[in-house]
Amino acid sequence: MTIGHRTRATLVCYALLLPTLAMLAVFVFTPVIWAFSRSLFEFEIGAASRFVGLTNYQEYLGRDPTFLPSIANMLFLTLVAVFVQLTVPLIVAKLIHSLPRERWRYIYRLVFLIPTLVPGVAVMLIWQGMIYSDRGMLNEFLRGIGLASWATGWLANPRTALLAVAMIGLPFVGGFQVLIYYAGLSAIPESVNEAAAIEGCTGVGKFFRIDLPMVLSQLKLILILTIITGVQGFQHLLILTEGGPGFRTMVPGLWMYYNAFSFQRMGYACGIGVVLFAIVLGLTILNIKYFRSTEELQEAA
Amino acid sequence: MERWKVPAIHAVLICLAFMTLLPFFFTVNNIFRTRPEFDREFFSLPDCFKDLSQAVTAEEGETFEIENEEGEIVEAGSDEAISFNLRKAARGPRLAWRAIRPYMVNSLWVSAVTAFGVAMLGSVTAYILARYQFFGSRLTFLTIISTMMFPAVLTLVPSFLLVKKLGLLNTYWAMILPYIAGGQVFAIFVFRSFFAGLPEDLFESARIDGAGHFRIYWNLVLPLSKAAFSVVIIMNIIGTWNNFLWPFITNTEGKKHVVASGLFVLATSEHASNPATLYAAYAISSIPMLILFVYATRPFMRGMTSGAFKA
After folding, report:
1. Quick one: pLDDT at residue B299?
2. What is the per-residue pLDDT for B1?
3. Tens place of pLDDT for every residue, chain A, 301 residues?
4. pTM
5. CB of B274 within 8 A of CB of B35?
6. CA A61/CA A50 separation, integer angstroms
7. Contact, A168 vs A127, CB < 8 A?
8. Chain A residues whose beta carbon lies within 8 Å of the beta carbon of residue B9
9. Which of A147, A277, B156, B211 is least surrounded by Cβ atoms within 10 Å, i.e. has the fewest?
């Protein structure tokens, strides 16, 4: 039997790709397929499973008491996150970028990265312990300035819990986002800056007319990342509030977690996962379609 | 730029940096404070530091009050007071280290093996996909990259079911194997664009010299791609180090906790009654990332923006 030289070369290539493809097949594609297939079953680990069709989806979208409040909470938290991530780090990046000496620009970028070195769990626990406990920084500060009556268990009080979660990370200068925007600002060609200077376009006017259109790609990236994190993220709520008080800080992802690992409703949890996947996918497509990047604007012009 | 602007920008940035780092200043400060101090006053420097500075600057014959081993308050000279307060300051870190040492070891082991696996698989696969065109090569690349669109929330529960079915719960492999499988995708993306930029002449002449895949990979690709490797490895280690949820749910018996999940366990254990231990644990858990950051600042920062491909 003779195998052609080309066929042999192709087979060698596939042999080298085999470990990657095998890992993906087992640990990525299998769970993706299971997510859809298991969502049609009702089962607990160790017990017999029962095919129930779309019942899990009907229950979640129609009768689950957490559905509407948790979607509303998720939207609120995501909108706040989108708003702050698209503004604060961009302004900080612009401020850093407009410093004349490279040395300082480098130092500031480093400083804002320091918080990203602390594990996310620790950051949440630090905020919980310092800002939000009764004897935390925020309450002690309020007592200190004579507003003792305002002091409250910010995460335990049903009226403040959601807002308190949204405000974690104040002043919202994420080191990662600053670096992304900074890279975008640095990529603006010098000729554009010079032309703007000759036209007398400087300061705030230049920021809106030149810088902002030139970093649209970065804004789009941060927007998509923030939305994806906002829709599927729930770990901080598991640490901070467990979705409480009541369902005041419940989000769909956390409800999925509880259904799977506290109530043993694996099929139902898979269904919630699929619903969240649909939301993420829908929003990402909307984003790609309607939010135009700098390159696309240039092509259109 | 007008002259007043630069100082104004500095002032705004320093304010923001101070606010951003404030929780971490408090963390470090609280490492050295005891529970009673903590209950008495929220904003305060550690007592042991104040006492220490007094003892160090003490004059001949001055005495200090310290606690002896039975917890009674006794008079002591400045030398004893210094060593007492140093021991007092070290108490939080000591207890914290004892509590999280196994988690740190697990984290280091899991991150190292994962980063090695991701760099190996990712670079070999990217080398093939970047430098060779063969039947199905483009489709293979698109299939690999398409996995990026499946969010973690979709696969969390089924991945748990899978790992359970494979009998991997409560093992390192429950973390390492899924991490490598998922992490290699980003690595392939980074490596492929890097390898595609290498000049074809090099590969051409290597092949003419009769070098096979292994020789080309080992003698040509590896030495030329240190920058890409450092980015991939650093980003991967950060990801593994910070992943909390997956170790938390796959360690049903709680024996293989890594730092992230271990901190959460610690915060809900009996250690929670002693803030110094908790805050010291948070600080210690950040030290490896701090070392990585100091040791490899440039690749670290390059890695942060390497994910910023056109969305």
Report:
1. 84
2. 59
3. 566 888 888 888 899 999 999 999 999 999 999 999 999 998 877 777 888 888 889 889 988 999 999 999 999 999 999 999 999 999 999 999 989 899 999 999 999 999 989 999 999 999 988 877 777 788 888 888 888 888 888 888 888 899 999 999 888 998 899 999 999 999 888 888 888 888 888 778 888 888 888 898 889 889 988 999 999 999 999 999 988 788 899 999 999 999 999 998 999 999 999 999 999 999 988 888 877 666 666 666 5
4. 0.90
5. yes
6. 20
7. yes
8. 95, 98-99
9. A147
Q: Is residue B206 classed exposed, middle or buried when 0-12, 13-18 and 19+ CB atoms within 10 A define those classes?
A: middle
Nearest to A265 by CA among A16, A84, A47, A100: A47
Alpha carbons A200 and A178: distance in angstroms, whole number? 27
B118 with B184: CB under 8 angstroms?
Answer: yes
Question: Which residue is listed with tokens 């397929």?
Answer: A33
> d(Cα B187, Cα A141) in Å, to the nearest integer?
46
Contact across the interface for B26 and A32, Cβ inside 8 Å: no
What residue spans define the domains of chain B?
A: 5-89, 92-306
Local structure of B247: helix, strand or coil: helix
Cβ contacts (< 8 Å) between A238 and chain B: which residues? 245
Exposed/middle/buried for residue B294 (C-beta within 10 Å: 0-12, 13-18, 19+): exposed
User: Do A237 and A78 meet the contact criterion of CB atoms below 8 Å apart?
Assistant: no
The residue type of A232 is Q
Q: Are B238 and B289 in contact (CB under 8 A)?
A: yes
Q: Which of A7, A13, A135, A259 to mutate to test the interface with B (most CBs of B within 10 A)?
A: A13
Residues of A in contact with B122 (CB under 8 A): 20
Say whether A42 sits in a helix, a strand or coil.
Answer: strand
What residues contact residue A203 under an 8 Å CB cut-off, 6+ apart? none
Low-confidence residues in chain B, pLDDT < 50:
309-311
Q: Which residues contact B258 (CB under 8 A, 6 or more apart)?
A: B103, B106, B107, B110, B175, B241, B243, B247
CATH code 1.10.3720.10 for B92-306: yes
In this complex, the residue of B132, B249, B305 whose CB is nearest that of residue A13 is B132
List, in order of start, the domains of chain A with CATH numbers.
1-36 (no CATH), 39-300 (1.10.3720.10)
pLDDT, one tens digit per residue, over B59-89 is 777 777 777 767 777 777 777 788 888 888 8
Residue B42: Cβ-neighbour burial (10 angstroms; 0-12, 13-18, 19+): buried
Q: Per DSSP, what are the bridge partners of residue B281?
A: none
- Cβ under 8 Å to B: A residues 183-242: 183, 217-218, 220-221, 224-225, 228, 231-232, 235, 238-239
Residue ranges with strand state E in B101-253: none
**B154 within 8 A of B85, measured Cβ to Cβ:** no
Tokens 């600080």 map to which residue? B283
Is the CB of residue A282 less than 8 Å away from at least one CB of chain B?
no
Give the phi and the psi of residue A87 in degrees, each rounded to 5.
-110, -65
Q: What is the ipTM of this complex?
A: 0.90
